[in-house]
Amino acid sequence: MSSNSFDARGELTVDGQVYEIHRLAAVEGSARLPYSLKVLLENLLRNEDGRLVTAEQVRAVGNWDPAAEANAEIQYTPARVLMQDFTGVPCVVDLVAMRDAMSDLGGDPTKINPLIPGELVIDHSVIADVFNVPNAFSINSEYEFKRNQERYQLLRWAQQSFNDFLVVPPDTGICHQVNLEYLARVVFTRERDGVRQAYPDTLVGTDSHTPMVNGLGVLGWGVGGIEAEAAMLGQPMSMLVPQVVGFKLTGELPEGTTATDLVLTVAELLRKTRVVGKFVEFFGPGVANVPLANRATLGNMSPEYGSTCAIFPIDQETLDYMRLTGRSDHQVKLVEAYAKEQGMWHDPGHTPDYSQVVELDLSTVESSIAGPKRPQDRIPLRSAKRAVRGLLAGESQEVAVLAGGLDDAGDESFPASDPVAISDRIPRDEPPRTFEDDGVELEWPSDPAELVLDGQKLTLDHGDVVIAAITSCTNTSNPSVMIGAGLLAKKAVERGLSSKPWVKTTLAPGSRVVTDYFDRAGLTPYLEKLGFSLVGYGCTTCIGNSGPLIPAVSQAVNGNDLTVAAVLSGNRNFEGRIHPEVKMNFLASPPLVIAYALAGSMHVDLLKEPLGEDASGNPVFLKDIWPTTAEIKSVVDASLEAQMFTDGYADVYHGDDNWRGMHVPEGDMFAWSDESSYVRKPPYFDGMTREPAPVQDITGARVLALLGDSVTTDHISPAGSIKKSSPAGQYLLEQGVEQADFNSYGSRRGNHNVMIRGTFANIRMRNLLVPGVEGGFTKRSSEGEVETIFDASNAYQAEGTPLVVIAGNDYGSGSSRDWAAKGTMLLGVKAVIAASFERIHRSNLIGMGVLPLQFKDGETAESLGLTGLETYSIVGLAGADPLPREVTVRVESDGASRDIATTLRIDTPAEEAYYVHGGILQYVLRQLLEA
Predict the structure, then answer these.
(1) Residue 265, SS3 per DSSP
(2) Do 568 and 587 touch, CB atoms closer than 8 A?
(3) Which residues contact 393 (CB under 8 A, 6 or more apart)?
C-alpha cells in the first residue's frame, strides 16, 4: 500500500462505479499550477511510498517556482508505454532474454511481463516501393513482410506470450494516430491492492512524436529505449520538474488556412522563444476554437520546436472527440467528472502560473510551407516562388548546426524517430529564418534535362517537384485537412487537371479510418486519378521510406546534378532524409501537396499563376479548386461518425493474412534462431547469479576512446545505412546477407552483433587517440597500429582488460538512444569519465552497469594532461555501502602514478541499486526472482 501523507485519497462515483482518486486539493498551492503539473502532482500523490517517491517531491511540485530554471528532481511513473517497431524491438528482445535468464536462475519465466501496459504499433517499416497502381498497397505490404519477417515473428510471439503487451500489426496505422484515435484513455483505470483507481492517462513513448496525444489532454513524451524498458518493468523515471511556457491562443483561423499552416507558425514562434526541455501548455479563450485534430497536430510537432510536450487541457472539445472516435459513454463521463473534480477542466478565464507566456492571434496565420531543410523555417505561400529561386540563385540558407543541439539531434534521429535529449549547456541552435519577399525577380541557373515518360518527351529542371506525399500522422490524423485534400482533388479532376508525370505521388495515412471516410465521401477515385492511391498505412515518406524515384526521373536528376524538391505533409525535412536524390524538402498541408503535384514545380506561384488549363483552354488557379471551410465541414460531418472508428478498430490486433500466417512457436520462452541476422539473444545476463557480486574497484583499465566536447549519442550509437567496409557490414556478409539486403542499423537494433560493431563508428567521431582520423578508430599504444574500435575492444576483452572512455563537456546529448549505452557496455567499457553529462544518457549508462564519473569543476582531460595512453584504476568503490560521492582515478604511466579526484554521478538510491546489480534489467530480474 502506498503512503498517504497528504490525506489525499478520496472517491469518485460515475454511473454507480466507485473509483479511488487522489485529490489535488489536498496539496497546498495546487490550484495555481498549470494543467500539466497537476498531472505530475497526482502521479506523485498516488505513487508516494516514502522511498522512491517522497512527500518532499510532492511538496516540491506544490511549491513549484515558475521562474526557477532548476527545479526539484522527482520520480515519475507513467501509466503505459507506447512503442513503434524500430525503437520497440530492442525493448522486446530484452524482455524475452529476461525470461531465459529467469529460467536459468531457477525462477518462473512467466513472471517476466510488462508491469504496466506496453503497446507497440508496427509502422516504421513499410516503404513506398510501388505507387499509382490499384494494388500498390498489397505489393508494398508483401515487400515489407519479406524484409522484416524475423522481426515480425518476434513481435507476434511477444503479442501472444506476454501479459499487458499489445501489438498492432503492420499495415494498420501509425502509432501516434492509433494512440489518439483508439489507445488513449484520457483517464486511466486500474486495480491496485484490490481497489479500482482512476487517474490521468500518461505515457512515455519510444518515438519523438509521442506528444501528439497531448492534444487529447494526455501527458506523454518521447524517451529512449532503456527508460521505456524501465517504465514497463515498473520502475519510476527520474525527471526534473520543468518550466512551463503558457501559449495563449486568441481569435480564429482565417478562411483558407489549415492546421498545417498553424503548426508551422507555432513551430517558428516557439523556436524563437526557445523552449527546449520545457513543457508548453495552451490556454486562453482561443483554445475552444481549436478542433481536437488541430490540437493533435500542434502536439505532434513538439520535438521540432524542442519542448518536452505541448499539451491542451481537457474541455468539451476533448469529450466530443472521444465520442466521435467511439469511446464508451462511461469513459467519456468518467473523463468529464474526473477533470472537473480535480480542477483540471479548462477554464478560459483562468490563467495558471506559467514560467513565461507566449501569445498568438489565430487570425494572423497564413498559408505556408516550411523548408527546404528545417521544419521551423516557415515560408509564406505567397513568397514560396521567390524563396526557392533565391535558393537556386545561390542565396545561402546554411546555418550552423551545433553538435548535440536540437537540429543535430532531430536530423540524426532518422529514420527511427528517436526522442531527443538535449543538454541545457549546449548553445542554442540558430533561430528560424524570417523570410522577407523583396519582390526581386531572380535569375536562376536553369539546366533542363530531357526525359521520356510514357512516350512523352519532357524536361526536368532545378526546382521541379519529384515527390508529392500525403504522409505522416502529423496531418493524416486531421479529417479537415484530409477531406480538404480530397475535395481539392475532386475539383481538379473535374476541371481536367492532372499531376505532372515526373512527380511520384503517394497516400499513406495513419489509420484505416482515413480511407474509410474517403470512400464514404466518394473522394477516393479523384485522389487515385491524380496518382494519390494508397501505398500503405505507415510513416513512409516522412521517415525517408519514400522508395525509389521514377527511374527516368532519377537518371535525369543524377545525370544533371539537379536540385529537385519533395513536398510532403510530414514533420521533418532535413536534407537527404526524405530521399537521397532530393535536396529540397518542403512541409505543406495535404491540399498543398496535391497542388504542387499538379504544378510539378516550386517555380509556380500558386496564388498568382495557373495550375493548368481546363478542357476549354481556360486557366485554372488554385483559388478555383480550393475548398471552403464550410464545404469541408459539410463533408466531414456527413462522412465521419463514431461507428467508423468502432468498426475500424474492432480487429486492430488481428492483422492480415501475412501476419496471421507466420509460423510462431508456442511456449513461454522464445526460440532464438542462430540463423537470424535481425534478432539475436543479447548477452546481458550471461553469467548472472541470484545475488549480485560485491562492487569492486576497476583496476588496470585502458582508454578505448579519448573524446572532446559535445560528443552526442548519435556519434556513439549506430544509425543510418550499413557500409560494406564497416565491421557491421563485414559481419552481415559473413552471415550470408547480400549488401542489397543490409537494411539500416535502425532495422537491426534487435541484433547486438550488428549494433556493437557500429558503436562509436559514426564518421563524425573524432577519437583524440588517433588525431586526424575520422570515424570509429583507435589505437592501443603510442606505436600501435590504427584499428577499429570494435577490433581493439575484442583484443582488450580477450586479455581481460577493462576499458574506460574519457570525454569532455555535454557527453551524450542528442537523441536518447538506448544503444549509445548498450553498445558502450558490450564493448567492455566499465566507466565513462567526462567533464559533464547529458542527464538521460548518464542515467542510461548506469542502467547498463557503466559507471559515470565527472571531473571536478574546471578540470578536463586536457587540463590534467591526460593522453589516453595511460593505465587507469578507479578506487574507493570496493566495500563501500552506500557508494561514495567521490572516487579516486589513479593514472599510471611510465612507472609514475598520480591520483585524480572525481565525482561519482550516481545521484539517486534507485540508480545506486541499478549499478550494484549490474544494471536495471538485472535489478528487476532479481526482484521478480525473489517475489
Answers:
(1) helix
(2) yes
(3) 442, 443, 444, 445
Longest dimension (CA), the chain: 92
304 pLDDT tier (thresholds 50, 70, 90): confident
Tell me, what's the pLDDT at 433?
Answer: 59
CA separation, residue 814 to residues 81, 118, 820 (Å): 21, 25, 10
Q: Minimal CA–CA distance to 343: which of 784, 20, 24, 760?
A: 24
Q: Which parts of 454-511 are beta strand (E)?
A: 456-460, 465-471, 504-508
Threshold 0.85, pTM exceeds: yes
Nine-digit cell string for 709: 566536447
CB 200 within 8 A of CB 318: no
Dist CA 523 CA 470 (whole Å): 15
Tell the residue number behind the cell numbers 547486438, with chain if given. 752
Position 100 confidence tier, pLDDT thresholds 50, 70, 90: very high
**Phi and psi for 620 in degrees, rounded to 5?**
-115, 120
Q: What is the spatial distance between Cα 704 and Cα 79, in angstroms, rounded to a whole number?
A: 40
Give which of 746, 742, 740 is closest to 722, Cα–Cα.
742
Do 915 and 847 touch, CB atoms closer than 8 A?
no
The mean pLDDT value for 836-845 works out to 90
Instruction: Tell me the percentage of the chain whose pLDDT exceeds 70.
Output: 95
CA 152 to mean position of chain CA atoms: 21
- Taking the C-alpha atoms of residue 376 and residue 434, their distance in angstroms, rounded to an integer, is 10
State the Cα–Cα distance between residues 598 and 586, nearest whole angstrom: 16
Tens-digit pLDDT profile for residues 441-469: 778 889 999 999 999 999 999 999 999 99
pLDDT of residue 277: 87
User: What count of other Cβ atoms lies within 10 Å of the Cβ of residue 273?
Assistant: 18
> φ, ψ for residue 734 (rounded to 5)?
-65, -30
Residue with cell 557508494: 883
User: Residue 408: pLDDT band by 50, 70, 90 thresholds?
Assistant: low
Give 886-903 pLDDT, tens digit per residue.
Answer: 999 999 999 999 999 999
Nearest to 546 by CA among 514, 582, 512: 582
Question: To which residue does cell 489518439 refer?
Answer: 180
pLDDT-wise least confident of 521-535, 607-621, 735-749: 735-749
27 neighbors 6 (Cβ within 8 angstroms): yes
